[in-house]
Amino acid sequence: MLKKEGEKNHKVRLAVGNGVRNDVWREFLDRFGAVKICEFYGATEGNICFMNHTGKIGSVGRTNFFYKLFFPFDLIKYDFQKDEPIRNKDGWCEKVKKGEAGLLISKVNAKNPFFGYAGNKRHTEKKLLCEVFKKGDLYLNTGDIMVQDHENFLYFWDRIGDTFRWKGENVATTEVSDVIVMLDFIQEANVYGVSVPDHEGKAGMASLILKQNTSLDLGQMYKQVVTYLPSYACPLFLRVQEKMEMTGTFKQQKFRLVDEGFNPSTITDPLYFLDNSKKAYVLLTKEVHEMILSGKMKL
Which keywords does UniProt give here (predicted)? Predict the structure, then answer.
């Protein structure tokens, strides 16, 4: 949105919502002044929620002893390849340390019930974790990965289905997309993992929507990702689309993109590949695609 004079001359004092990106949050405050932003986290079927009353950019809220007394929750270790919580040799789940990403689970009891999904018993049971820390306990699996810092602020990291592993490391799609959309020619970025034959894990791929009257600057794109992301998180493949597909709840659609992969023979959208030998993104031709599949092109 174009800047206008007098943008700080308004009577808005409070904004409440969820899912705002850090860069948007900062730009909003810079342009519109000291508006109090309350970012929150929650789900209609869930039994836990957080709200950031302090204005800490990026956080969904802050926890303390009394909050956990009324709404007991934990962040536990998660195996992204097996797509399940990690259990130790005794069969119990383990909590992550502060600063580490973990699956958010919320205790289910009389004070914090989980009523489930109407008419869908199987889906309801799938959301519950039993025997988590001790015999007989029951927790709601939120399906969300979060991080708690040393000041007890909580940050949404990713959905468990969206996070993927590459070169032995966990890649958070939200972190990668946040870095990409900082570029002034990018309107939106949808990041996901794609399978590559004879390689463990999934390679990063980003579907991009360009802002109106702009063009893709591959040089800037390369510089941006290698500067702000660890090497394992840099998207190996780029796909430029005219329109971003959304789900019924206005979230980015990933499943079809994952299935289509990075094959230029079946995808009509422009595709690019991160060629480390050239330190640049190059056009992903059929020849390059074949070299990747045959192992001649190093990833």
Answer: Fatty acid metabolism, Ligase, Lipid metabolism, Lipid transport, Transport
**Rounded Cα–Cα distance for residues 246 and 207 (Å):** 13
- Can you tell me the distance from the alpha carbon of 229 to that of 175, in angstroms, rounded to the nearest whole number? 9
Entry pTM: 0.71
Output the six-digit token pair for 42: 């929650």
36-41, strands of its sheet edge to edge: 14-17, 36-41, 50-51
Q: Where are the beta strands (DSSP E) in the chain?
A: 14-17, 36-41, 50-51, 61-62, 73-76, 78-79, 84-85, 101-107, 128-130, 138-148, 153-159, 164-166, 169-171, 186-194, 203-210, 237-241, 271-275, 280-283
Residue pair 198/259 in contact by the 8 Å Cβ criterion = no
Closest CA to 291 of 259, 250, 262: 262
Positive or negative torsion for Cα 193, 188, 49, 102 = positive
Which residues have C-beta within 8 Å of that of residue 65, sequence separation ≥ 6? none
| DSSP three-state, residue 259 | helix
